Amino acid sequence: MHHFNYQAGELYCENVPVRRIAAKVGTPFYLYSAATLGHHYRVFEAAFHGFPHLVCFAVKANANLAILSLLARLGCGADIVSGGELHRALAAGVDPGRIVYSGVGKRGDEIRAALKAGILLFNMESSQELEEINRIAGHLRKKAPVALRINPDIDARTHPYISTGLKKNKFGINLEEALADYRRAQELPNLEVVGVACHIGSQITEISPFVEALERLKELIRRLQELGIGIRYLDLGGGLGIQYDQEEPPHPREYGSELLKHLQELDVTLILEPGRVLVGNAGILVTKVLYTKESEAKHFIIVDAGMNDLARPSLYGSYHGVCPVVQQSRPLVKASLVGPICESGDFLAKDRKLPAFRPGELVAVMSAGAYGFSMSSNYNARPRVAEILVQDGEFYVIRKRETYRQLTWGEAIPEFLK
Ligand code: LLP
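Above: inputs. Below: predicted complex with LLP.
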């Protein structure tokens, strides 16, 4: 469910016309609905009622301070993967006791900052990392709470770039090596072994891969118990998919109830790290048609947002719905929605049936709330776009459009060139 709907032929975000926002802030911009985000969080969280659990939003999906702060106020924690994400989560008011830190390449300074902040859990991804965190915790005279991120070797049946739970992926520790690593972790004086974690991939549209992963982790927990290693946290990662096009992902309620069925006998707190399912359909990218180009071979609709603003279509061939902000009677044509970037891979929609948009018209690229702005770049020296949040009939600029000055910030021309 989301709050981007047409009223009398015009696209609204909740009860604010998208056209009105565009007139005020210019294009392109990301637009989020607070009601949608809040609703998604509540539904997801409620799916696990009756079992001890903690929802930690995957900050990488959307790291805007206002988005993080909105979720934090609802009681949501954060799943972070860098010192920068730690900084953002803390700045947004996320309780450090609800932060989990994943990632294969945590640097010493990042580990130190997270230890000082007093986060809930470090998800360890290699035996070397265990030694490193033990060393740093020792210097700080702290005990680091750790889980080992297990690679359960599960095929999540999703795009290969976003599948992470297969042995051949770089993530986690293989099941066969896990017991040895747990034993080692248990010996290290500055670690407190508290959990088991996994994350098998993203945009997963079936429940069975999650259940398979859970079953493998349960077996591991049982064996750890035999070794006297008590596990308090079971972190199942994120990955639940959303509808972009024709997908039929399970409802979070089904996902929750199915997982809970398999968890009953366990005495743990369940941690979940959803990203996309919370924000994906809570945001759109609004752009304006600059030109159209029709030849025998092709019909291009050239807009002012490009692959630097929304990388998913060019990076993964992802589908995003394309809708007019103001409906007009336009025939459907086979066309591509492309940006101004100097790359043929710069498209937001390729060879699709689209309304024959005309220059000046506003276009909404749907389901862009997750991995949209957060993956945007300054390629082609394009300032990053503004982000807007609608709440209760008002809209708020939650990130200003970047300026040209910001583009060159920190750069210097050395003396010898002057
Ligand atoms: N936890 C960990 C350890 C992760 O690596 C990720 C995502 C998540 C949680 C959240 O996954 P989600 O619930 O959002 O599926 N850029 C890609 C997605 C990359 C996902 C990376 N890891 C995309 O645009 O589709």
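The chain has a mean pLDDT of 96.
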